[in-house]
Amino acid sequence: MTTTRELLAGKVVVLVGGAGLLGRSLAQACAEQGASVVIADLDGSRAATACEQILPHLHGGSAHAESVDITSKESLQALIARVSSLEGRIDAVVNSAYPRNPRYGRKLEDVEYADFCENVNLHLGGYFLSTQQFAEHFRRQGHGQVVNVSSIYGVVAPRFEIYGGTPMTMPVEYAAIKSALLHLSRYFMRYYKGTSLRFNCISPGGILDGQPQAFTEAYARYSQSQGMLLPEDFGGTLVYLLSDFSKFVNGQNLIVDDGWST
Ligand SMILES: NC(=O)c1ccc[n+]([C@@H]2O[C@H](COP(=O)([O-])OP(=O)(O)OC[C@H]3O[C@@H](n4cnc5c(N)ncnc54)[C@H](O)[C@@H]3O)[C@@H](O)[C@H]2O)c1
């Protein structure tokens, strides 16, 4: 008789930005595969709500919510200390926060230098800090892995024509942040040579979230079959990366975009 075992049974996964559109869904995918999940977010009350929604999806693990600010070393260190004392271990962190200032998302010619710098600091700087703090914890612990959420816009140049007739654009900071994040993750991988620590990225395509129809239709023209994807379309890739099936996948970027960037 064969028995099936959840792919992440016994693992403790911290989802930073876990109360967000993508983070919530990634947390659910981990919970369904037996992981204990920690929903860590700047917005503690949204994290608590996201955590309650996860409870029916647990398969032997647990779920709890935490507050964290990825731009604060003290906040990240306090999170790591709390989770490791509560759970006894941390197997992975998934960085899926999306910090930005109120002026984020302007057209290229309207972006002020101070705003460019602030948004890069918050997002790329925050992912750096989270990766740095968790990596050192993982080195002391003897194992662990980081998955950074990048984007197709870290991989290919924007297609500005798809934003025509909408107030949307693809922010220049985003291109700088997400492309840098891919190489930053490789830097960490190489730095920790001689350990089992892993550093990978997932680069999602556009996620459906109430965008104008003109945009979703224009976006879909570059896709193979689906157009914009749903948050749950990325969970399987994360579960693979967090599972022992990808034990020697390191320094990679897994693009999940229905062929959009190819
Ligand atoms: N939505 C998309 O279409 C899309 C596509 C590709 C990649 N991504 C990437 O996916 C990730 C998540 O995006 P999303 O759409 O879920 O965003 P979101 O805005 O829905 O969620 C982001 C979460 O990050 C939290 N956050 C913000 N600042 C923080 C900080 N300083 N510390 C901790 N948490 C903080 C917010 O409270 C929020 O819950 C981002 O890296 C984003 O670039 C999104």
TrEMBL record:
Pfam families, alphabetized: adh_short_C2
Family matches, as InterPro entries: NAD(P)-bd_dom_sf (IPR036291), SDR_fam (IPR002347)
GO molecular function: oxidoreductase activity, acting on the CH-OH group of donors, NAD or NADP as acceptor
Entry keywords, A to Z: Oxidoreductase
Family under the similarity heading: Belongs to the short-chain dehydrogenases/reductases (SDR) family.
NCBIfam families: PRK09186.1
Protein name per UniProt: SDR family oxidoreductase
Organism: Piscinibacter terrae
